[in-house]
Each structure stands twice: as C-alpha cells, then as structure tokens.
C-alpha cells in the first residue's frame, strides 16, 4: 500500500498531451491509497518556447482554478496541492520568475527538456542521438541542470538523468556528480520519477547509482509518477520508496514551497 505517500509530479489536459480531468487524477490517487498529490502541469513559457506541449499563459488562471476546485472537493480525504513543472532554458528565467510570483505554489519542479532547439526527450527527434557525442551531450545537459539548481527558481530538479530515456546512457558520470553537488549546495530535492520505468530505458530517474550519490550529499527525494493519465498515479511507488529508503534516502514533499519532513 502507498499510505502516507504523495504523488508530486502529474499533468492535466491543459498541457495538450495528457488525458483525464483533474478530479479523475485525484480519484485515482485516492483509489491507489495515496495520502495526497501535487499537480505539476507543464508551466506556460515564453510563446516561442515549446508551445504545443504546455498550457498558454492565458490558461494559467484556469489551471489554478481547476486545482483549487479539486482541492475543495477532496478536502479531508486527499491532500491536494498546487504546483508546476517549469522548464529551465537560458533566457526564460525572468518569465518563470513572473509566473512563480503570480500564485501561491506549493512546489515547483525545474526540468531541462531542451539542448538548444532540440527537444531531446521527444521520440520524434530520437535520431539526433546518433549524430551526437554522448559524453558531450551529457556534459551540456548537466551544465544546464547546474544552472537550474543555481537559479533559485525551483524546489527540485525533474527527472535528473532524462537523456537516458531511449537507452542512451551517460558514458562518463562526472558531469552528473557535479550537478548533484550543485543541487546539494542549493538545498534542492530531486524528483524521483517513476515514468522512466515506462520508457525504453526501463529505469526510474535518477538511476540507482545517482540515488546513492544524492543520498551521500544529503539530497532528499520527492516521489512523482509524471502521470499523463489517471491510471499512472502512484505508478510503482512502493518499489520507489523501498529503493530510496534502502540506501538511507529521505522522501519529502512541499507545501507553500517549504519542505515537509
Ligand atoms: Zn508532459
Ligand atoms: Zn518533464
């Protein structure tokens, strides 16, 4: 059973690529035995950035209103929180800063989904991996993660080792450790993201090795299914919790952007 656990990474149809209403996600969380959830839909970004895969800025209020309605409906049965998954992409920091000031968020994930103009986790563009040097790719990626950690915008880093999604594993590892140092120094958590278990790599983000390195640095974890449909709520959370706690790691959640536990 998943009693006591929160799912703090999930989406809504406002992002354009998720199905199920917010109340259906909440009902699925209850049915799975979760204690709560934090909606973290893909945040608006400047209009030129990744527009088909996220809500528009003029939909943000609708998102907040929908989450507040579910919060009210499930009060006393399920702890429903309001968050965002924002992107870290150089040049967009001021825009994100504005969003974060506009509402009372509980939790904000900072994710890197792009290297330059390449959406590297999009299955449509997977062929690009063949044109890249993997060590260089991971070096560039983790430099961006360090930037996200140092930006002061986020509570956690989303799916830390995301470039492995289709099976292209990091041949080196040094850049990942530097990113973990930055995450620890900034006092951030890591999104322990079970979606990786549903992808070709068939491994949660971050890998067991990186989980152990994070634990050494005192970095806690926030559990997230990255659900894009209600049936994915709490996906393999018992296993995730066992993996983290088995190496002495800590699972936390956020309220009002303050760490709990
Ligand atoms: Zn998504
Ligand atoms: Zn993401």
Outline the secondary-structure elements.
Layout: E1 6-7, H1 22-31, E2 36-42, H2 60-73, E3 79-87, H3 93-102, E4 107-111, E5 114-115, E6 118-119, H4 134-150, E7 156-157, H5 174-185, E8 189-193, H6 208-216, E9 221-224, H7 237-246, E10 253-255, E11 258-260
Parallel strand pairs: 1-2, 2-3, 3-4, 4-7, 7-8, 8-9
Antiparallel strand pairs: 5-6, 10-11
Helix pairs in contact: 4-5
The structure holds zinc ion (2 copies).
Residues 11, 15, 17, 42, 228 line the site of one zinc ion (ZN).
Notable traits:
seven-stranded parallel beta sheet; 261 residues; single chain; binds zinc ion; globular; alpha/beta; two-stranded antiparallel ribbon; 17% strand
Major sheet summary line? 7 strands, parallel
Tell me, rounded to a whole number, the average pLDDT. 97
Radius of gyration over C-alpha positions, nearest whole angstrom? 17 Å
Element pattern in H and E: EHEHEHEEEHEHEHEHEE
Give a written overview of the molecule.
- This protein has 261 residues and is α/β, with parallel strands linked by helices.
- 31% of the residues lie in helices and 17% in strands.
- The chain has seven helices and eleven strands.
- The chain has helices spanning 22-31, 60-73, 93-102, 134-150, 174-185, 208-216, 237-246, and strands at 6-7, 36-42, 79-87, 107-111, 114-115, 118-119, 156-157, 189-193, 221-224, 253-255, 258-260.
- The strands form three sheets. A seven-stranded parallel sheet has the order 1-2-3-4-7-8-9. A two-stranded antiparallel ribbon has the order 5-6. The chain has a two-stranded antiparallel ribbon with strand order 10-11.
- A hairpin with a 2-residue loop joins β5 (114-115) and β6.
- The longest helix is centred in the middle third of the chain and has 17 residues, at 134-150.
- The mean pLDDT is 97.
């Amino acid at each position: 059973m998943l009693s006591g656990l929160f799912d703090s990474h999930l989406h809504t149809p406002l992002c354009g690529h998720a199905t199920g209403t917010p109340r259906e996600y909440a009902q699925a969380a209850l049915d799975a035995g979760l204690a709560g959830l934090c909606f973290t839909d893909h945040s608006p970004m400047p209009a030129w950035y990744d527009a088909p895969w996220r809500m528009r800025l003029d939909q943000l209020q609708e998102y907040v209103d929908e989450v507040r309605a579910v919060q009210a409906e499930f009060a006393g049965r399920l702890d429903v929180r309001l968050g965002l998954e924002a992107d870290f992409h150089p040049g967009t920091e001021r825009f994100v800063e504005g969003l974060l000031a506009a509402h009372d968020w509980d939790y904000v994930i900072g994710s890197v989904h792009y290297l330059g103009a390449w959406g590297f986790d999009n299955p449509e563009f997977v062929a690009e991996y063949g044109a890249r040097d993997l060590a260089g790719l991971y070096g560039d990626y983790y430099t961006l993660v360090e930037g996200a950690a140092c930006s002061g915008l986020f509570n956690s880093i989303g799916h830390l080792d995301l470039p492995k999604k289709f099976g292209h594993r990091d041949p080196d590892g040094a850049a990942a450790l530097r990113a973990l140092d930055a995450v620890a120094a900034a006092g951030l958590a890591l999104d322990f993201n079970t979606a990786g278990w549903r992808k070709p790599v068939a491994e949660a983000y971050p890998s067991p090795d990186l989980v152990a390195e994070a634990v050494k640095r005192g970095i806690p974890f926030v559990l997230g299914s990255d659900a894009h449909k209600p049936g994915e709520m709490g996906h393999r959370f018992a296993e995730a919790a066992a993996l983290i706690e088995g190496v002495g790691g800590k699972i936390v959640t956020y309220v009002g952007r303050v760490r709990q536990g």
